[in-house]
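Protein modeling request. Please complete all fields; requests missing the sequence field cannot be processed.
Requester role: graduate student
Desired output: 3D structure, token encoding
Chains: 1
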Amino acid sequence: MDSRTFLGLEPTHNPFRWKLPVTEGISTTGNFLFGGSGLAAAISAMEGTSGRQCVWATAQYLSYAKPGEVVDIDVTIAVDGHQITQARAVCHVADREILTVNAALGDREIEASGQWEQMPADVPPPEECEERRHFSEMSTSINDRLEERMVKARSFEGLDGSEPGDGQTLLWARLPDVITGVDATTLAILGDFVPMGIGQALGARAGGNSLDNTLRVCRMVPTEWVLMDIRVHAVERGFGHGLVHMFAQDGTLLATASQSVIVRYWRS
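Delivered output (268 residues):
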């Protein structure tokens, strides 16, 4: 299956409107649409409407969509240039706006290229890493469709609040159902990991709800697993801020994602 099928995103007779039935498989354990799923669906819709690939997209999360609801995604092409399309997608359930996404899409053929952000050294392969166990026993959420292997992370039992971390978390992640290769939509789903990093940085059973998520796409190469290098910068005033560098198994930087989060502690 491809990433659009993974989400369940559907085109309509109107090329500027798409539909996303909200299911448990793209939702959180809190029973609402996973933020990465929302951004991913908007990116996929804008790519489908424009015929161009995402360069950059940013989401502002405004409300929640529950399983059983249908999110309508209305795409507006603000500027359609020779090489770059500037677009936005408004995602809503009836008249309730869920998230708004702005994006640039396109390709430019120039010789200049380079990668200066490097994958952390001496990272063991996924098959040598312990599988991440989630704190919730619920089996009807997007967690069941993600596979994660911990490289530098504490287990649920280790998040006892006794000692903060250094702000960096490393783990391998993949969507086993998506076999057509990593794309911007896949990375938008995987990029929503700053909330997980918040708990690791605090050393506590905490996370949060995303206020925003910005995906910046670099270079796509074939890879089965994506290394998530999560960096939490600060937690203050009840909010956390951080980013994720996403690397292919060969060390290629695929994309970066940055977020601000409403910090919340989990209920035991």
